[in-house]
Design brief:
Blueprint: H1 2-13, H2 22-32, E1 37-40, E2 46-51, E3 58-64, E4 69-75, E5 81-86, E6 98-103, E7 106-112, E8 133-135, H3 141-146, E9 154-157, E10 162-164, E11 168-171, H4 174-189, E12 196-202, H5 210-219, E13 223-231, E14 251-257, E15 260-261, H6 264-276, E16 281-285, H7 293-298, E17 305-312, E18 320-323, H8 324-340, H9 343-349
Parallel strand pairs: 3-12, 3-13, 13-17, 14-16
Antiparallel strand pairs: 1-2, 2-12, 4-5, 4-9, 5-8, 6-7, 6-9, 7-8, 10-11, 11-18, 14-15, 14-17
Helix pairs in contact: 1-4, 4-8
């Protein structure tokens, strides 16, 4: 368990916004290179293959490396920084938060400007990320340059890893570093399997599932399992009905989101596998969001794809929470799929 917690801490603490996933890729490569064949595609996704007792079917196990972040969009004459969002942010959650700007001389910490209530006029329009400024303590463009900062530098939230009440883990970037941790742990534990598993850590999911578009062309799978850190809906004010992504209630098996109608026979088979192995799980019909399943399930004439997720409270914020039991349930279900899915079962899931 300690090794898994260390893996979760290492991955979630690492900076890696869209276009800057290399530090995350280095961690995953270090863990998987001893037992897998490693390659990279042209966009930067890392692909790690492990052949079992059969070459077919080829199963794509995927998680995205990038986290929501920003790019340095402009610098004011007074030395403030403007932000270009990379991924979905709620602007009103950002004032007062700290960020790291990853410049040529290393990370520079700044704070998103927060107007004190003494000066705040009635807000007439919705706040946008583009309206916000970051203060790094500089007073001019020249001082910004002296810090090693320039346009295009990538920016990530400042957070720290902590354990709450023994089983809740707090940090940034659980979407989708928790999926990356499941991917790494599953590949390291996988020994006997009747297929070839191709673990794929994709780039740029948060800006339009771009990495999966190119990676699936390289992997050429017959089926795919997408691993995610999905927004939890189990705290007040989120849903009027029973939650479908409750923290501590097990692996979330997604049936639908606006980008993907999940392969019906595939998710039904996965659900029965979870029941048979007494793995805690919950079904979700999502009314918003998208995953790497979007481009994957449409590739090569159609690829049976299923999405498994660890619920994340406060996703797309500076700090989120996951539950160790959900992580372990998702890992167990992932391994059960990889150890069971052979050509015969896959054929039974496909249209006759």
């Amino acid at each position: 368990m300690k090794d898994l917690i260390n893996l979760l801490q290492e991955l979630s603490s690492c900076p890696g916004p869209p276009g800057g996933e290399e530090p995350v890729a280095a961690i995953i490569r270090r863990h998987l290179e001893p037992s897998c064949q490693i390659q990279r595609d042209g966009l930067g996704s890392l692909i790690a293959s492990k052949q079992g007792s059969r070459k077919q079917p080829r199963l794509m196990l995927t998680a995205h490396m990038d986290e929501v972040g920003f790019m340095l969009q402009n610098i004011t004459e007074g030395g403030y920084l403007r932000l270009q969002p990379l991924g979905g942010w709620i602007a009103s959650n950002l004032p007062g938060q700290r960020v790291h700007i990853n410049g040529s001389k290393g990370a520079v910490e700044g704070i998103v400007a927060a107007v004190p209530p003494h000066f705040k006029k009635e807000q007439k329009s919705e706040l946008k990320v583009e309206d916000l400024l970051v203060d790094v303590g500089a007073a001019s463009k020249k001082e910004i340059a002296s810090l090693g900062l320039q346009l295009g530098d990538l920016i990530t939230p400042v957070s720290h890893f902590a354990i709450y009440n023994k089983k809740l883990l707090a940090n940034k970037a659980w979407d989708d570093r928790v999926g990356c941790a499941v991917l790494v742990a599953a590949m390291k534990q996988l020994s006997s399997h009747p297929n070839t598993v191709v673990a794929t850590a994709t780039v740029q999911e948060e800006v339009g599932t771009r990495g999966a578009v190119t990676a699936v062309e390289v992997v050429k799978p017959q089926a795919a399992v997408v691993l995610e850190g999905a927004p939890a809906d189990d705290f007040p004010g989120i849903t009027k009905d029973s939650p479908q992504g409750a923290v501590g209630k097990g692996c979330q098996i997604r049936l639908f989101d606006p980008s993907t109608i999940i392969h019906r026979h595939f998710w039904q088979w996965v659900t029965e596998l979870a029941k048979k192995n007494k793995i805690a799980h919950q079904l979700a019909v999502r009314q918003s969001g998208a995953t790497d399943a979007r481009p994957i399930h449409l590739a090569q004439g159609g690829i049976p794809t299923v999405v498994l997720a660890v619920p994340v409270r406060y996703a797309h914020g500076h700090s989120g929470l996951i539950h160790l039991d959900d992580f372990q349930a998702t890992l167990k279900l992932t391994l059960a799929i990889l150890k069971k899915l052979d050509n015969k079962i896959l054929k039974s899931l496909l249209p006759a």
